[in-house]
Every structure is written in C-alpha cells, then in structure tokens.
Amino acid sequence: MTTTMQAIVARQAGDPEVLRLDELPVPAPGPREVLVRTVLPPIPNHDLWTVRGTYGFKPELPARAGTEAVGVVEAVGEGVTGFAAGQIG
Questions:
Q1: What whole-number distance in Å separates Cα of residue 78 and Cα of residue 15?
Q2: Strands lying side by side in the sheet with 4-10
Q3: Which region holds residue 32: left if phi is over 0, alpha if psi is between -120 and 50, else beta?
Q4: What angle do CA 67, 11, 74 make, to 5 degrees?
Q5: How far apart are CA 89 and CA 76, in angstroms?
Q6: DSSP per-residue codes, 12-73
Q7: N-to-C CA span, the chain
Q8: What local confidence, expressed as pLDDT, does residue 1 receive?
Q9: Hey, which of 49-53, 55-59, 65-69, 83-87 has the most confident mean pLDDT?
Q10: What is the distance between the alpha carbons of residues 55 and 82, in angstroms, rounded to a whole number?
Q11: Could you tell me if 3 and 14 are in contact, meaning their C-beta atoms sit under 8 angstroms apart?
Q12: Is residue 81 pLDDT above 80, yes or no?
C-alpha cells in the first residue's frame, strides 16, 4: 500500500477555485473505521455549497471535498464486521 494519497482540499471558504489537489499521508483505519481507496470521485453540488459556506454548516478548515464515491476497501479497523479488504462498494 502507498503511504500518500491525493485529496481535494479547501483551505478557505469560497467558490470552487479555492479547491486544491493535495498530497496527504494515507490514514490508518481506527476502531470501527474502514479505509476506502476511491475509484470514482464525483464532487456533487452539496460539496460545493459546503465549500462556499452555504450548506447549513461550515466545516473546520482545511476540509476535504468529496462525500460521495465508489471505491475499494483497502483495510478495516478493529471491530469492523461486514467489510473486507478488496471489497468494492
């Protein structure tokens, strides 16, 4: 498994132009968490509204965009049931 990943990140609120592609460390899944390698990463309208600060809450910055995705389970944390590495979802 690689040690870094790419993520779309907003470091300030604003229009989509504030989004940047960042290289970040791959997190290890904690208890009851699943690490998913994203294969199809759409950015739906509600993500853009969140970045603008107009979706009902303002995320703590920097914030990652992308709340919907299709991916492959890379690892599972302690206590996870129903998911296994290699599973597509």
A1: 39
A2: 19-25, 4-10, 63-64
A3: left
A4: 40
A5: 14
A6: S-SSGGGEEEEEEEPPPP-TT-EEEEEEE----HHHHHHHHT-SSS-PPSSEE--S--EEEE
A7: 19
A8: 63
A9: 83-87
A10: 32
A11: no
A12: yes
Which positions are catalytic? 55
Q: How far is CA 88 from the centre of its chain?
A: 16
Confidence at residue 65, expressed as pLDDT on a 0 to 100 scale: 75
Burial 13-43 (b: 16+ CB within 10 A, else e): eeeeeebeeeeeeeeebeeebbbbeeeeeeb
Identity of the amino acid at 34: V
Tell me the per-residue pLDDT of 30-52, one tens digit each, with 9 for 90 and over.
Answer: 999 999 998 988 888 888 888 88
